[in-house]
C-alpha cells in the first residue's frame, strides 16, 4: 500500500510476480479489498485461462472503463464523448483504447484530486495469446507515461514467464515500474499459518462433526502443513479444499495429508505433487477420469463453430461427447478439492488452480497420472470422427457441430497420429461426396469462413503427408496407393 500512496510520480506500475501457488492472487484480492474500502480502487480485472471472457485481451479495457464509470462517475461523460468521437474505438489497439477510455478520463476527472487510483490486473500470464500479454504491458506503460502528473497506478500480477520478463526489462517500461517478487526472498510462512488457522476455525464451525473437532487441529499439525507448503499458498489452499468435504471426516483426511511422502529428490512442488497424486489415487477408475481431465484441458474452444465457452459449461456435454452415459459427475466425485464441479451452470467444470494442468502434463511429476497432450488430442480427434460417422445428417447438435469443426484441429495437434490417419482413410472420410463433405455443403452459409478453414486444413494434409515415411504404408481400402493423394482425394474447389 505504501507504493500506491507514494509521492514518487515516476513509478506508475508495480509488477508482482512469483511461481504458481505463491499467493499472488490472494495478495491481489486483499489489495483490491483494502483499496476499495479506502476509495482508491478504480477497477480490477482477473484473467483466467478457464474463465469465459477472461482469457483474452478483448474485454480488458471495456471492463476497466465500465468499472471506472462506477468508481468515478465524473468519467462517464468523458468516456461517452470519446466513444462518440471514435465509434470504432473498441476495435482499435489496446494502447488507443487504454488512453481514450481509461487514462484520459481518469486524469481529466481527477485533475483537482490528489487521491491515487489503482487498477489491478491479475493473472496476466493466463491471457491465451502470449503476444497480447506483451501488448497489454506496453500499452499501459505508454499511456501512463503521457501525463507525468497522473495519480493513476497499475498493479500487474503474473507468473514470471519469459515474454513478460523481457517486456518489463525494456528501458521504457523498467523506468516507470517497480517489482515485488514472491520468491525465496519472500517468507510467506506466517501468512500461510494465519490462513490455515482462519480456515480451520471456519471448518469447525460448519462441519457436522464440529463437537469432536474442538481441540483440532494441533499447533503441530498446522506447523507441518506450513512446512510442507514450502511457501506455496496453493498447497495450503488445496489441503483445506481436500479436508473440507462435508461428507468426510476431516480428522481422517488431515491424517491422510500429513502421511503423504513425496518422491525422492528435491522438487519445488514436490509436496503439492504428492498431494495431487494422493487425491487422484482415490479415483476408482482413473482411466475414465483421465478422459474427462484431458477433455477439460484440450477441448478446442477457439476453433469450434459454436460459442466455444459452452463446451465446458455442463457435465451433460461431457457425457455426450465422451459417451459416458451420465458418469461425468460421478467420476469427479472425489476430486472436488482440485476441480470445481459445483458451479456447473455458471463457469463449467474447471480446475481450481492452473498448476493442476501443469502437473498432469509433466510426466516427471505426475507419473502414472500423466496426460500426454499428443495422445489426448488423438483420442479427441478419434471421438470427433466417430461422432461424424455415427450421427445422422441434418441440423447438427452440439457434439456433432464441435466434431465437424475440430476433428482436424485435434488431428493436427496429435502430431498427425498414424492411427487417426489410417482410420479416416479406411472410412473414406476425405473423399469427395463422403459424409463429412456432404455435411459441409449443407452447413449454415453464414459460417462459410469455417468451411474455408476446413478446406485449408485438408490442403495442408495433402502437402504434408506425402513427405512422411509413414505414408509408404498401403491403405487397406486401396492396395495400389502409396500416399495421401491417391488414397483420399481432396475436395474439388467449389
Please tell me about this protein's structure.
The chain is α/β, with parallel strands linked by helices and 494 residues long. Helices cover 51% and strands 7% of the residues. It is built from 24 helices and seven strands. The chain has helices spanning 2-5, 24-37, 60-71, 75-85, 94-109, 130-145, 162-168, 171-174, 189-206, 219-229, 233-243, 250-259, 270-281, 286-298, 315-322, 328-331, 354-361, 363-366, 373-390, 398-413, 418-426, 435-441, 448-464, 484-487; strands spanning 13-17, 41-46, 117-122, 152-158, 177-181, 339-340, 350-351. The chain has a five-stranded parallel beta sheet, with helices on both faces. Strands 6-7 form a two-stranded antiparallel sheet. Helix 5 (94-109) packs parallel to helix 6 and helix 19 packs antiparallel against helix 20. The chain is globular, with a radius of gyration of 26 Å. Mean pLDDT is 78; it is low at 443-448 and 466-494.
Keywords:
24 helices; single chain; disordered C terminus; alpha/beta; globular; 494 residues
Task: Give the helices and strands, then pairings.
Blueprint: H1 2-5, E1 13-17, H2 24-37, E2 41-46, H3 60-71, H4 75-85, H5 94-109, E3 117-122, H6 130-145, E4 152-158, H7 162-168, H8 171-174, E5 177-181, H9 189-206, H10 219-229, H11 233-243, H12 250-259, H13 270-281, H14 286-298, H15 315-322, H16 328-331, E6 339-340, E7 350-351, H17 354-361, H18 363-366, H19 373-390, H20 398-413, H21 418-426, H22 435-441, H23 448-464, H24 484-487
Parallel strand pairs: 1-4, 1-5, 2-3, 3-4
Antiparallel strand pairs: 6-7
Amino acid at each position: 500500500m505504501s507504493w500506491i500512496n507514494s509521492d514518487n510520480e515516476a513509478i506508475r506500475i508495480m509488477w508482482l510476480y512469483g511461481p504458481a501457488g505463491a499467493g499472488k492472487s490472494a495478495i491481489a484480492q486483499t489489495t483490491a479489498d483494502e483499496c476499495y474500502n479506502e476509495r482508491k480502487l478504480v477497477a480490477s480485472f482477473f484473467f483466467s485461462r478457464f474463465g469465459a471472457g477472461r482469457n483474452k485481451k478483448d474485454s480488458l479495457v471495456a471492463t476497466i472503463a465500465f468499472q471506472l464509470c462506477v468508481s468515478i462517475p465524473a468519467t462517464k461523460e468523458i468516456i461517452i464523448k470519446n466513444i462518440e468521437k471514435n465509434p470504432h474505438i473498441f476495435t482499435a489497439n489496446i494502447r488507443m483504447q487504454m488512453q481514450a477510455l481509461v487514462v484520459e478520463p481518469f486524469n481529466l476527472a481527477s485533475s483537482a484530486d490528489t487521491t491515487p487510483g489503482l487498477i489491478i490486473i491479475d493473472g496476466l500470464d493466463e491471457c491465451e495469446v502470449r503476444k497480447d500479454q506483451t501488448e497489454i504491458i506496453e500499452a499501459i506503460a505508454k499511456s501512463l507515461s503521457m501525463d507525468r502528473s497522473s495519480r493513476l497506478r497499475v498493479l500487474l500480477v503474473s507468473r514470471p514467464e519469459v515474454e513478460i520478463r523481457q517486456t518489463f526489462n525494456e528501458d521504457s517500461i523498467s523506468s516507470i515500474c517497480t517489482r515485488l517478487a514472491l520468491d525465496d526472498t519472500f517468507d510467506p510462512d506466517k501468512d500461510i499459518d494465519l490462513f490455515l488457522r482462519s480456515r480451520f476455525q471456519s471448518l469447525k464451525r460448519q462441519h457436522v462433526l464440529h463437537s469432536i473437532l474442538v481441540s483440532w487441529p494441533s499447533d503441530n499439525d498446522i506447523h507441518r502443513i506450513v512446512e510442507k507448503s514450502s511457501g506455496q499458498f496453493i498447497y495450503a489452499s488445496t489441503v483445506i479444499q481436500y479436508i473440507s468435504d462435508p461428507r468426510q471426516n476431516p480428522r481422517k483426511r488431515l491424517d491422510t495429508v500429513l502421511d503423504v511422502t513425496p518422491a525422492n529428490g528435491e522438487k519445488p512442488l514436490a509436496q503439492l505433487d504428492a498431494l495431487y497424486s494422493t487425491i487422484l489415487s482415490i479415483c476408482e477408475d482413473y482411466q475414465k477420469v483421465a478422459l474427462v481431465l484431458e477433455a477439460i484441458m484440450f477441448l478446442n474452444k477457439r476453433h469450434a463453430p459454436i460459442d466455444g465457452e459452452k463446451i465446458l459449461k455442463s457435465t451433460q456435454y461431457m457425457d455426450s461427447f465422451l459417451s459416458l452415459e451420465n458418469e461425468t459427475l460421478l467420476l469427479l466425485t472425489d476430486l472436488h478439492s482440485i476441480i470445481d464441479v459445483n458451479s456447473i451452470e455458471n463457469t463449467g467444470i474447471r480446475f481450481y488452480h492452473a498448476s493442476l494442468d501443469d502437473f498432469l502434463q509433466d510426466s516427471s511429476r505426475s507419473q502414472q497420472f500423466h496426460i500426454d497432450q499428443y495422445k489426448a488430442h488423438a483420442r479427441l480427434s478419434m471421438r470427433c470422427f466417430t461422432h461424424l460417422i455415427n450421427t445422422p445428417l441434418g441440423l447438427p447438435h452440439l457434439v456433432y457441430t464441435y466434431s465437424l469443426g475440430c476433428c482436424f484441429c485435434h488431428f493436427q495437434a496429435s502430431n498427425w497420429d498414424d492411427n487417426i490417419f489410417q482410420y479416416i482413410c479406411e472410412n473414406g472420410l476425405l473423399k469427395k461426396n463422403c459424409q463429412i463433405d456432404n455435411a459441409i455443403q449443407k452447413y449454415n452459409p453464414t459460417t462459410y469462413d469455417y468451411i474455408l478453414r476446413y478446406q485449408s486444413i485438408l490442403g495442408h494434409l495433402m502437402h504434408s503427408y506425402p513427405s512422411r515415411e509413414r505414408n509408404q504404408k498401403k491403405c487397406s481400402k486401396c492396395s495400389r496407393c502409396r500416399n495421401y493423394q491417391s488414397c483420399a482425394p481432396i475436395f474439388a474447389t467449389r
